[in-house]
Design a protein that fits this description.
Two copies of one chain form a homodimer. Helix content of chain A is 28%, strand content 36%. Chain A has 162 residues and is of the alpha+beta class. Chain A has a single domain, classed as Nuclear Transport Factor 2, Chain: A. Chains A and B meet through strand 2, helix 3, strand 3, strand 4 and strand 5 of A and strand 2, helix 3, strand 3, strand 4 and strand 5 of B. Chains A, B: This is 3-dehydroquinate dehydratase.
């Protein structure tokens, strides 16, 4: 792959990744659905923070419909975006700095806003129609770690040292 | 891809995935290192449960060295294993039912055992030497959800409804 081709691919992947979060921000279910790979032989998978794995367009898109129905406001500030390309697959990692609010319960326009720190691994496949999401895995960052610090209480610990 | 080729690929990917967890269980750092992609143009990425993203062999392998140094005992019971193949990339999702223990502090052989429910998305690339890990993203399952239930308190909520 030439340097130019790689730069072009990276720009297209970043645009697809941005479109994914913008569809969430605007609650645009149609755009969001179109961004996910049309699976069949290659099922799509999705993990929302703290959730089990969802597999296939039915399960995954249903989860987004429910999420959108329960969200009045959401904004993603993406940082630490990195793209790793290999052939027709692209791996994107980023930090999702999220500000969101659910529906208010007392007649106010918006419920309380909540800030969250989440990291995501998004896998994209190249298709004739552009890059499409094959997998999204997002998880909460549960505490500060040193740059490559290890947990004190086990290898796959949920609580890295604060 | 013929059905036979696909079955052969899936078997090889599953074997690589099993080898990854076995290397963790036996604390075999050399085997673990060999299973990760030799990155360069395509950096490897890793998210341990609750951690931020680690990128590149230096950061990723250092984290495993630290984890192994702090782990006296660990066993993974893998369930819900699914493989999605596209070209030279394979996506594996599984539930890691983990039982682990750190070093004891009072002269006993083993610290208290801790059980954890973690889900993982593991991305593999086909290389001349076999399938190698490109990305590992593991995250804690923080509560029970209905099969495709949505969180009550926000779209990327860390706490799905119990």
């Amino acid at each position: 792959m030439s340097r130019t081709d790689r730069a072009t691919d990276e720009a297209a992947v970043e645009a697809a990744n941005t479109a994914f979060y913008e569809a969430m921000e605007t609650g645009d279910f149609e755009s969001l659905s179109a961004l996910w790979l049309d699976d069949g032989a290659t099922p799509i998978t999705c993990v929302h923070p703290g959730w089990p794995v969802l597999t296939g367009r039915g399960e995954v898109l249903r989860s987004y419909a429910l999420i959108m129905a329960n969200t009045e406001y959401i904004q993603f500030f993406l940082t630490d975006l990195r793209i790793s390309l290999a052939g027709d697959t692209a791996l994107v990692t980023c930090t999702e700095n999220i500000l969101s609010g659910g529906p208010a319960e007392d007649g106010a326009e918006l419920g309380p806003l909540v800030g969250q720190l989440v990291v995501a691994t998004n896998v994209f496949r190249r298709t004739p129609a552009g890059w499409r999401i094959w997998s999204h895995h997002a998880s909460p960052v549960l505490g500060d770690t040193e740059e490559t610090g290890g947990p004190e209480d086990g290898p796959e610990a949920s609580n890295p040292p604060a």
